[in-house]
Design goal:
Shape of chain B: elongated
Number of strands of chain A: 5
Structural class of chain A: mainly alpha
Oligomer: heterodimer
Distance between the termini of chain B: 66 Å
Structural class of chain B: alpha+beta
Shape of chain A: flat
Largest interface: A-B, 85 and 76 residues
Largest sheet of chain A: 2 strands, antiparallel
Chain lengths: 450, 383
């Protein structure tokens, strides 16, 4: 508990504690609160807002610490789960999320008024959107809410995007979901499925209308105007319209719904307020998200069961030896030219990366450190798998006439030749070394590493 | 805490290194092309498929200096009416791309027409995952024509009222490098496509009293009376309009669909019952052909067909656009735009159940934009 009313001022850069003070007013306030732990899970929204708006007051510091604490926990969770695979650590992630930085000016004394260095930090976004007093069944604690919001925060979103991970929002899931597949994705009664399908049909109709031409922008919560527009559609629906729409969506798979049930659906839709509709959409979105998670988990465990295919060694080794250098030249030249044409391409860095990797046997992590970029950038630049694929396909494309005659007219032979050669390059030590050597040699000729 | 509230690794879709960014120019073009479509859902599908096509072109450009996409025959770019980019060409291969926006589904959703219309048959059907939210695309997978044909022969595909089929993901080859291998090294004769059944419409210039068809598209409207769209219309991306809803694909017209009907009724010559079934077809050139059918009250064997042509893109129809109706192969009536500011053309005919009506729309150059034959076969015992 003392963490929430102890102010610690660190010396920038050295992480030394300059000053540690107890904020007495906050200490008295929080210690007087009954059931403190519950309070922190479900704080009073009005109190939060009034406290937050005055960030000079002591209680505001405490609140900042509380929210920041949750943000920090969320960052730790993300790092534990994804850090190793996507090559980042906590120090790199935290600045993207914990941006509620208050500048304290030592010249004016540590107790002087602090200054926010960012207008709308994540912490404020979390508090502004938090609905603790909600009695709805999906009401979330502040901690849960922080975990939900953090992944949608632009800086965090971009941080992951740079590393090849894209978070899907429930609005994106709802926008893209094929309506008839809801039946197999959510466990609900036929009537509830019917309601969900009709809600989503009109949500998609209204939502996609505003998204055309704005690809690349994140899917945000629908506006009040959009929700009202959907509700206007609901008001126009007759029972026969509902039957027709459900039939159009589900085809023959549409279970017979009685006239009474259709009327029930119509009345349920009519009753929805804007807030109620939003909650319904959130609930459907969460259920679909839950389904996607379970489905992916099942898929992963299934694929873990599969055994590695037996590696096929091939008789092609000798025949293709002479082709490798020519292919390497073509492939590296093409990639180099492609990068030269692109505004964001960096052809010299590409050659340097090849040099460090294939000639000096440096790991991607070391190369990233050398260039001062994140590791995924190096991985994208080298694209080892793609390099090998291109070498193999170029060998086949420009092969000498006597090698593999007629394979271009036989799909199976073509695929077999490609697979065998790829296996050789990846598995056979002689062949692997031969490719590495060819890449290294040609990279040096092109000026890599100079 | 409910563990599903926590950040879960499955909340992310890992973007592989081959995901490519779409340019703003490509996004704008997709938006402009989809503007040609009035049907809201199709409009979005056309938009996504334009993004998918751009993604495919980006991928090929990124992977090979020698392979380029020829999209000059692609109907998506000229008369977008299906949710796919058909008739693309890479070397001598025919390609059809289909955008996929939903993720982690067991199926991809494919317009029926690209599977059943032999003129749209392709050596490779390529499925492009469109991450619309981040304007990126990647190759989700592909299926060769020969593989698709074999699968379809062993397992029938269910056709849904929205004109799409569910294609199992497991039918797709997920490795785009394999597609690249074929495009680079395969001879196109290795995959045999069906001979194209000609659906060309031959219309003799000026003397338009007879028409010759190599293949006729016949639409049985009897299902419409039960609020169900027939399979042929579905494959043509037609839309059945509910009686009480005003979701008309004619929304861009200054007159709404209801106003057009009121205006026709006010001519005083036609009585259109509220129960008339209404179906709208998008047709070449950015027009819509709406067909209304109903049984003649107090008659045992007669039905009526009202056809209305409107423009999707413009407020008015272009000069010399013609709407014609044939009974068997004889011209019954023709209406042509002879004055500017004509928002619609219509013809109403009555016939008995044994009669079929051919509805033709042609432009100033006398090119047929649409030619559909409608019949009404009432249930046994009714006629």
């Amino acid at each position: 508990m003392s963490n929430f009313y102890t102010q610690v001022i660190l010396n920038p850069g050295q992480n030394e504690v300059v000053k540690k003070t107890t904020i007495e007013t906050a200490k008295i306030y929080y210690e007087s609160t009954q059931e403190q732990e519950t309070y922190f899970e479900h704080p009073n929204l009005e109190l939060l807002e009034s406290v937050w708006s005055n960030y000079n007051c002591a209680a505001a510091h405490v609140l900042r610490c509380l929210v920041s604490h949750h943000i920090f926990l969320a960052c730790k969770d993300l790092t534990t789960k994804f850090g190793a695979r996507y090559k980042f650590d906590l120090r790199e992630l935290v600045p993207s999320a914990l941006d509620d930085v208050i500048e304290i000016r030592p010249s004016q004394g540590y107790d002087s008024s602090p200054y926010l260095t960012r207008d709308r930090p994540l912490a404020i976004k979390i508090l502004n959107s938090f609905r603790p007093s909600s009695k709805e069944k999906n009401s979330k604690s502040l901690k849960n809410w922080t975990f939900l919001i953090i992944r949608q925060y632009p800086d965090v979103y971009d941080f992951f995007l740079d590393r090849g991970m894209c978070f899907r929002s429930i609005w994106g899931i709802l926008k893209d979901k094929k309506l008839r597949s809801i039946r197999t994705s959510i466990e609900l009664s036929p009537i509830e499925i019917g309601i969900a399908q009709i809600i989503m049909k009109f949500f998609q109709q209204v939502y996609i209308d505003s998204r055309r031409g704005s690809a690349g922008n994140r899917c945000e919560q629908p506006t009040v105007e959009s929700l009202d527009k959907i509700r206007v559609f609901f008001k126009q629906l007759s029972a026969s319209d509902i039957t027709l729409i459900l039939k159009e969506i589900n085809g023959d798979a549409c279970q017979a719904i009685t006239a009474k049930e259709v009327e029930g659906i119509r009345l349920s839709l009519l009753k929805l307020s804007s807030d109620g509709l939003l909650t319904e959409l959130e609930n459907i979105g969460e259920k679909l998200r839950e389904y996607l998670i379970k489905r992916k988990k099942a898929k992963v465990s299934k694929s873990n069961d599969t055994k590695d295919e037996e590696i096929i060694y091939s008789p092609y080794l000798e025949e293709f030896k002479s082709e490798i250098m020519n292919s390497v030249k073509i492939v590296i030249d093409q990639e180099h030219q492609r990068l030269s044409r692109r505004a964001d391409g960096n052809p010299s860095m590409y050659l340097d990366a090849l040099y460090y990797y294939f000639c000096l046997n440096k790991r991607q992590e070391e190369i990233a450190l050398h260039f001062g970029v994140i590791q995924s950038k190096v991985s994208k630049l080298l694209r080892k798998e793609r390099l090998y694929t291109d070498i193999v396909q170029t060998i086949i494309e420009f092969r000498s006439p006597e090698i593999l005659p007629g394979i271009e007219k036989d799909i199976n032979k073509l695929k077999e030749a490609s697979d065998k050669l790829m296996n050789l390059i990846k598995v056979n030590p002689t062949m692997t070394a031969m490719v590495r050597e060819a890449v290294c040699q040609y990279t040096k000729i092109k000026g890599g590493g100079q | 805490m409910n563990d599903l509230m926590e950040i879960n690794e499955y909340d992310f879709y890992p973007l592989d290194e081959e995901s490519l960014q779409l340019t703003q120019e490509q996004i704008t073009k997709a938006s402009e092309i989809s503007d040609l479509v009035t049907n809201g859902e199709l409009k979005w599908q056309v938009y996504l498929n334009m993004l998918g096509l751009a993604g495919f072109e980006n991928w090929l450009e990124d992977r090979s200096d020698n392979l380029r996409v020829d999209d000059s025959k692609c109907s998506l770019l000229s008369t977008p009416s299906i949710a796919a980019a058909d008739n693309l060409q890479v070397r001598e291969f025919k390609i059809c791309t289909v955008a996929v926006s939903s993720i982690d589904e067991d199926f991809v959703y494919v317009p029926q027409s690209i599977l059943i219309d032999s003129s749209k048959a392709a050596h490779f059907y390529v499925f492009i995952q469109v991450f619309e939210e981040i304007a990126q695309t990647s190759i989700l997978g592909f299926v060769r024509y020969d593989q698709l044909k074999a699968q379809m022969e062993s397992e029938s595909l269910e056709q849904f009222p929205d004109g799409t089929c569910d294609l199992a993901r497991e039918w797709l080859t997920s490795d785009p490098d394999e597609l690249l291998l074929y495009l680079r090294c395969l001879d196109s004769s290795a995959i045999v496509l069906p001979e194209v059944e000609l659906i060309k419409l031959v219309e003799k210039k000026e003397v338009v009293d007879r028409i010759e068809l190599l293949k006729e598209i016949v639409i049985d409207t009897s299902q419409w009376l039960n609020n169900t769209l027939d399979q042929v219309s579905k494959s043509l991306m037609a839309q059945l309009l509910p009686n009480t809803l005003n979701f008309s694909p004619l929304r861009s017209n200054p007159l709404g669909f209801k106003e057009i009907l009121d205006s026709i009724k006010n001519d005083g010559r036609i009585e259109i019952p509220d129960s008339a079934s209404k179906v709208t077809y998008p047709i070449e050139g950015g027009f819509a052909l709406s067909i209304l059918v109903w049984k003649i009250p107090n008659s045992q064997d007669e039905w009526s067909l009202l056809s209305i042509v409107t423009s999707i893109q413009e407020q008015n129809l272009p000069l010399q656009l013609s709407l014609k109706i044939y009974d068997d192969a004889k011209l019954i009536d023709t209406q042509t735009v002879i004055r500017e500011f004509t928002p619609y053309l219509y013809i109403c005919v009555i016939g008995d159940y044994s009669e079929s009506f051919k509805v033709s729309v042609s432009n100033a150059e006398n090119e047929t934009l649409s030619l559909l034959t409608f019949i009404l076969k009432p249930d046994d015992g009714e006629s």
